[in-house]
Amino acid sequence: MQVGPKLKFYGVGGQDNFFELGGHSLLATQIASRVQKTLQRDVPLRAMFECSTVAELAEYIEGLAGNEISAEKVDRLSDLMAELEGL
Hints:
Blueprint lengths: L3 H4 L17 H15 L5 H6 L3 H13 L4 H15 L2
């Protein structure tokens, strides 16, 4: 998925370093907010500092998707917790 147009970032390559391009904490906050809104993923601000390139941030976000718990799993865990409380 190409997020550049969605996030209104143009002319930035996947390996370009955010900070070397003049990035700063306020801009990182704005970008993190856009990423969260556009991709529906909770991206902590610290990820913007740890992942200084688009490629690194994309890899981080993909990792978040793999860690999500489905509603079905949440329901099952709730049922198990209720059973444990009843013991």
